[in-house]
């Protein structure tokens, strides 16, 4: 279990700084690139995919790669955490506290939460659309996996808001959920699971066999967090009448999980998400979520951002309270 102060300080760092991959320091106009565990995960996955995603037994090799990387991350993080807990510092009241242990946990929370960066990216999509459709397409391509070259302005906004809802679960609620269950090793292990799915968990010709286990493990890891995300979104919006809407529309998605937070946001905004999209040149038919195919506006983005922030606050508060009680 994490110390509540480590959680709160790590969360505040994310609120203030956002993506820790490039932090602007005095005297460095372009920023200083910091080491990021998810970048390391991506390199590990890319190496394994290049090395093993060929020849026979691709499904088996993909399963072995996914399980090995997941167990490796949990084992290494657990060992490092135990190591840091052994180093204590005497305080003025005569007690000794594992300060390095608390700082380590705080840093991992900072690295694992992505709420601020996601909101910034979605805002940038709408600002880019104000300038031109081409800029909007290029900006939304930073946060979605679908092909964006032929999207209309409405489709760009829809893609951005769908991603905002889906990644509220993947980037905020799910990491905090696994933090509450398994501490920071579980939180960082979830990030490996999610990175595996985002890189090789596609049903394309290249990844269908090799990445199927990565996709399945991600589905299991997100099953409860996705539904918890939708519930929190409904609670913070004060729209309890949307529970039946989410129940009916949450399964209208290619993913067994992503449809639930998307349905919650579609209900709150009274709009329609989903539909066919191109991924890596292949057309995928996704069911529609909601029936009201209305035009989206910048006001919808502001409402969605507010719902995201309030949901994040509630989830951080729940985990911090649980940690305080257990400690």
- Helix and strand sequence: HEEHHEEHHHHHHHEEEEH
Strand order of the largest sheet: 1-2
**Shape call:** globular
| Uncertain segments | 22-32
Helix-strand makeup class: mainly alpha
Total number of strands? 8
**Number of helical runs?**
11
Summed over residues and divided by their number, the pLDDT gives a mean of 90
What fraction strand? Answer: 5-15%
Oligomeric form of this entry?
single chain
Biggest beta-sheet profile: 2 strands, antiparallel
Work out the radius of gyration: 20 Å
Question: N- to C-terminal separation?
Answer: 8 Å
Helical coverage, percent range: 55-70%
Describe the protein in words.
It is a single chain. By secondary structure, the chain is mostly helical. Helices cover 67% and strands 6% of the residues. It has helices at 4-17, 37-52, 58-85, 99-112, 115-131, 133-140, 153-200, 212-237, 243-249, 259-269, 298-326, and strands at 22-23, 32-33, 89-90, 96-97, 273-274, 277-279, 282-284, 288-289. The strands form four sheets. A two-stranded antiparallel sheet has the order 1-2. It has a two-stranded antiparallel ribbon with strand order 3-4. The longest helix is centred in the middle third of the chain and has 48 residues, at 153-200.
């Amino acid at each position: 279990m994490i110390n509540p102060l480590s959680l709160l300080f790590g969360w505040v760092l994310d609120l203030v700084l956002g993506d820790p991959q490039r932090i602007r320091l005095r005297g460095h106009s372009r920023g200083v690139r910091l080491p990021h565990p998810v970048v390391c995960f991506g390199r590990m996955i890319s190496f394994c995919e290049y090395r093993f995603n060929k020849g026979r037994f691709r499904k088996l090799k993909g399963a072995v790669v996914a399980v090995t990387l997941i167990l490796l991350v949990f084992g290494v993080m657990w060992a490092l955490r135990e190591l840091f807990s052994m180093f204590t510092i005497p305080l003025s009241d005569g007690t000794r506290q594992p300060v390095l242990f608390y700082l380590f946990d705080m840093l991992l929370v900072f690295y694992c939460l992505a709420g601020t960066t996601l909101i910034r990216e979605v805002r940038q999509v709408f600002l880019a659309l104000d300038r031109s459709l081409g800029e909007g397409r290029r900006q939304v391509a930073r946060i979605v996996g679908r092909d964006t070259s032929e999207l209309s302005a409405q489709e760009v906004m829809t893609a951005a808001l769908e991603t905002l809802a889906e990644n509220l679960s993947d980037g905020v609620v799910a990491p905090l959920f696994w933090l509450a269950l398994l501490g920071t090793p579980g939180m960082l292990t979830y990030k490996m699971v999610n990175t595996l799915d985002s890189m090789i968990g596609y049903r394309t010709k290249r990844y269908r066999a090799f990445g199927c286990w990565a996709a399945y493990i991600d589905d299991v890891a997100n099953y409860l967090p996705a539904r918890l995300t939708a519930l929190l979104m409904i609670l913070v919006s004060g729209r309890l009448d949307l529970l039946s809407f989410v129940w009916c529309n949450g399964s209208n998605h290619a993913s067994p999980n992503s449809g639930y937070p998307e349905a919650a946001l579609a209900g709150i905004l009274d709009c329609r998400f989903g539909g066919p999209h191109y991924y890596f040149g292949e057309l995928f038919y996704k069911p529609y979520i909601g029936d009201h195919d209305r035009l989206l506006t910048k006001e919808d983005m502001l409402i969605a951002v507010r719902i995201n922030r309030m949901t994040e606050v509630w989830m951080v508060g729940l985990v911090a309270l649980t940690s305080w009680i257990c400690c």
